[in-house]
Every structure is written in structure tokens, then in C-alpha cells.
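Notebook, p. 212. Picked up where the previous page left off. The plan for this session was modest: take the two constructs that came back from the sequencing core last week, fold each one, and keep the raw output in the notebook itself so nobody has to go hunting through shared drives later. Recording the first one now, exactly as returned: residue sequence, then the C-alpha cell string.
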Amino acid sequence: MRLLCGEQDIIIVSIKIMNELEKGLYIISTPIGNLNDISLRALDILKKTDFIICENPKHSLKLFNKFGIKKKLLSLHDYNEDNLIKRIAKYLDNSVIGLISDAGSPLISDPGFNLVKKFIKKNIFVTSVPGPTSIIPSLQLAGFAINSFIFFGFIPKNKSSAKLNANIINDLDLTSVLFISGNRLKDFLEFLSNNRNIAICKELTKINETIIRGKVNNIVDKIRKNEINLKGEFTVVVDKKEIKQTKSVDNNIKIQASKLLKKYTLTDTVEIVHKLSNISKKEIYQMALKLKNG
């Protein structure tokens, strides 16, 4: 047994502790296209894991080979999640386990929810290593207000369910973002209000990054003319519902009109109040006429 008392020994022990990761689950975001978007922290943790849970090992190997990461990969899908949890049960609290998806942030329209829930239920360490996602770049590039937004995930394949989602979006005064495959894009857009502003995004962060903005009917027309390549999946951003401000005559407007009628003709008063209030001339005229006739 050795007693550590020298300054050098303390430094060596401190470095060892800093390099050790707490046993548990690390939910790690990976690039959505450009592999250079991987964070330094994500690379560091991936290299220190005991094994990594992913969707498609062949797909993940492209990233790992680029950065020299060699780890055991376990495939996770919705249909095998329960079996995988049983398979790794004895490693949950004594291993550093990474969870990644094919691209972007795990769990967002991807499997892994039950796995995370298992760690939380057993009170085992879980943390997130944040990074790339197609949702935020799409919102940023759409050009719409994004102080608040709602995420719908993948739009259902069933047409009735897809239409129900579209009807909800049509009535929302929030910006909406959703995922959809190209072969179902046109049918879904036809459920949306024709004059709604949208942006459809594809190949984000890649050389062929494409953002197409416009009214729904214009985008649908481009699809009909085969001007948009529908191969692959899209992130669609739908602008919030435009709420027309409807103003009506109130007591302040009446007081203002009464003062103006003392100086101007009925026609001039209507014109001035209309410009100041943006209330329809017809409504202002009827109100002003009543005031004038006492």
C-alpha cells in the first residue's frame, strides 16, 4: 500500500478522476449530415463508453471510422427495445453506456424512450450530451417567428390522422415544425390552408442543403411540376395562423370623431378617423352620422 503525499502524486490522481466517467447512460447527439458538427465532448464520451446503443450500426460506423472510434455497437429499434433492455440489464449500473440515433438528437422521433425510463426508474445516472438536430436549424432558416413553436414529430402515414394533424396546424397561432417522407409530402400539404407560409428543408448541413419557402399552394404546384426532388425525408416548418386584427368603434373613437366634426366635414372626418384607426369607412360613417345628427 502506497501513501500518496507528493504534489506529483496528487496531480496524477486528479487527472485519473477527471478522465473517469460516471457509470450510467449518456444520450449523445450526433451530426445530421456534416460529420464535422460532432462536438468535442461527444467524441470524448463516445471514446470512453463501454458500449454504444445505436439504430443502424453500419450507418454509425461512418462517423466512428472518421474519428477512430472502435466500440461494440448494439442495434436498437422499436420492435426490439424491451429485449435489448433485458439483454443489458446486468450492465446498467456498472458500465458507461452511450445512446445515439442515426442522426441528430436521440429519442426525438427515434427509439430509446423505454431504455431511458428504465435508467430513471432504477435511479441510475442519466445525462444528455446535446448537439445537432434538424428541428432548430429548420426553424432558424424558415424566416418565421420562433419565440414559441410546436413540434409534431413524424406525420402519421394514415391519411385521416395526417389530415387531423393538418387541421390542428391550420388553427394554430404558433409556428409548427414536423417531419415527413417525400412520397407523402404533397398529399399532406394539400390538407393545409393554401395561403399559409411554409418552408420545406432537406439535406441540412450538407453540400446540397435545400430550403424552399413559399405559400402552400405554390409549393404544391412546384411538386406537381416535378421541380422538387422528393427523395428522402423533409423537415417542414409552417408559419403561424395570421390573425387579422379587427377593430371596432369604441368610446375613444367617438370622442375623437365628435371633436373632428366641429372642424371638418362628415366626409373628411370619416377619412381622418379611418386612417388613424384602420376601422372600415362604412362603420365610421354610420357612427359619425349619428353623432352629427345628435
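Okay, moving on. Second construct, recorded in the same format:
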Amino acid sequence: MSGLNLIKCGAILTIQGGEIKMKQLSTFAWIAIFATGAAVVNGIGIWVIFKNRKWAEKAKVYFMCFASGVLISSPLIIAFPQAISKNSYAGYATLTGFLFMFFSNQLIKYRTKQKEIAFGITAVEGIGIHSFVDGIIYSVTFSASILTGFLSGIGLVVHEFAEGVITFSILIKGGFKEKKAALYALFVAALTTPLGAFIAYPFINKLNSSILGLALGFVVGVLIYISASHLLPEAQTHQKKHSILAFLSGIALALFIAFSKIV
């Protein structure tokens, strides 16, 4: 069996006593790796802006563009066809997921009286809910297949850097001191993602194929909304040189992984 096939089977290679051995990873292990990785990347974003605001503000645009490229490609070419194959009504669930995110965003704007994501506690509350939902997404996508979870996970993990930067900035503008803003941002934006994944997995794991298809369809709508209505507009507002290249690179990576089937 080739190395590519090992990865495709959801396994990793380990070296013990000079011998290469295959270790099969469970669905929960993949969820834990990506959910924890998301928290780490988010924390890195918070730490970087805490130490160097100028560089972090510049870099977040490229992270958002790359993440949006992955997150708008992988649901359409992998997750949505899988959802339809499991349940022919998954398209309705996709629409529901998109509308859920749309009206959730409208509710946050209404409560904060801001056109942009608001400053202060209410805005951070919204980010916390969003991060918690990210964790649930890991459970749903990896339960559908390793490929779906891997592709969706890449986009979500990458966008966590920008989310950490944004959360810290919001808290600073909301009047928090730097150290307290960093601590609150870590708790609200980073730790809620693995929390959502670990809480959701026992329930998602018990779903039959048809219900999982609806859940996956719902997640597709959420991912498309995050990419098309949140990440891309924010990146375009602060567009920089090579940001389009970063977006296209995200799409190219998703297509490469999907067609080469290395996961």
C-alpha cells in the first residue's frame, strides 16, 4: 500500500524501532486534531497581534482570502454532493444553514446597533457562538467522511488566525486593556471551538445516514455563508496586493486535494 493510500484511509505513518508502521486514526481523533489545531491557530493570532499589531492586521487579510477560497470550494465540490447522496432533501438543509447564519448576523447587528460586528461584550458573544458552531462543523464533516472533514477543516483552521486578530481588536476598541483582551479573546474565540466539537460528537455519531445528510447539508450552507458573506467582503474591504492570489490559492488547494484524493 502506498503512502498516499495510507493517508486516504485516514491513517498516519509512525516510525518505531526503525520500522515504518501504520496507525489508523478514528473519526474522533481527526476531530480532536483539527478542533484543537483551530484553537492553537486562533491563539497564535491573538499572541501575534498582542506582540505586533501592524503585521497581524496586514497578514489577516491574506489568511481570510485563502480560507474563503477553501471554504467556498470544498462544500460545493465535496460536501454538498455527499449530502445529496445521503438525503435528497439536503438542498433545503443547505438553504436553512445559509439563512440561519444570515439571520444570526442580522440579530447581532440589531442588538449592537452597528453596521459592522460591534464592539464590546455583545459582539464577542456573537464570535463565541460562531466559534462554537465551528466546532460542531468539525464533528459533522468528519462524521460524513475524512475527505470532507479535512477540506473543510483546512479552511476553518486557517481562518482562525484572522478571527483571533479580529476578536482581540474588538475587545481593545471596546475598552479592554491589552492583557485582559488577550485572555478574553482566547477563551471566547479559541477554546469554544474544541468545546463545540467535543460536545457535539456523541450526538452526531449516533445519527443515521439520512439525518447525517441533512446535517451535512446544513453545514454546507453555513460554510458558504462564512466564506461568501463574511470572509470575502471583509477581505475586499481591506484588499491588499496579492489578496486575490491568496483566494485563488485556497481554491487550488481544495481542488488539488479533491482530485488527487490524497485524503
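Notes on construct two before I forget. The first strand starts at residue 11 and ends at 16.
Flagging for discussion at group meeting.
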